[in-house]
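fyi for ur records
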Amino acid sequence: MLPKPTLILAIESSCDDTAAALVRDRKVLSNCIANQKIHEAYGGVVPELASRAHQSKIIPVVHQALAEANIDKNDLTAIAYTQGPGLLGSLLVGSAFAKSLALSLKVPLIPINHMQGHLLVHFIEEEGINTPEFPFLGVTVSGGHTQLVKVNSHFEMELLGTTLDDAIGEAFDKCGKQMGLNYPSGPEIDKLAQKGDPHKFEFPIPKVEGYDVSYSGVKTAFTNFISNQKQKDSNFVTNNLEDLCASLQYTLVQIILKKIEQVAKAFSLNQVVIGGGVAANSELRKQLMSRQKSHQWAVYLPPLKYTTDNAAMIGIAAYYKFLNKEYGTFSDASESRLNY
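which gave:
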């Protein structure tokens, strides 16, 4: 008799996306996300508004995930949720819902580290996803994090380098705001950069010791450059928008690429696994793929639908936790800062 498959309902609510997914073993049956458009007017995520939006969206999103997967909640094997890191108010909404449902269904509860989920998304069994072998270099690039991690097993991860200030996605958004672009600015910059010259304007690449990165200096230099140029020509940004986007994007990507090269060489890691929202950036993808030959790397890029925050990545991480019977308790606290 074949073993009974695991059916895990996963919930992700670390920031401003309310997400739920159904995962059967390593296969994703549904992956539903409700975005919060309200933050666009503020140019960034407002924590209080985010937590309130999660409260109104979480039940409809879970219902949608169950319906799309054609799964009855009484057939669930376990409930997984994001424990951290993230906005505490947002995390608490997902945590409270997951704990209540697990208690009522009398199934195991599995808390998941959001950052581990971004890297473990590559273990989903699906066409178009290749699974790396341990150990590998994991790189998480998003609006809130920029980290380089040595991944020895599914949950044995060693943080080697991180940002000393702004994350790469944050730098994209803040610089985009200086150009009058909408929030989030990363995708818009990427689109405009396709028609620009990445070498038209030069911005500094900071010299940071070790494996850490810094984006604050570039952000400041870009802001000052825009301010100075606008004093000379009020239409400077409009007349040079595509070149500005291309040059900025090139610089931001080069900063993390140099550290990836440094870490890969120092630790003899030839598998580079990318996760997080900025993994969707076309310049980063292009530069990494070009290094497959020049550096003899095996590069693993997630499908675009799994780059931004999603519950499928929480579900696949929970599957491996479930196999090892690593369950949580109802007293586990949500943590805005959670280490590997």
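The chain has a mean pLDDT of 95. thats all i got for now
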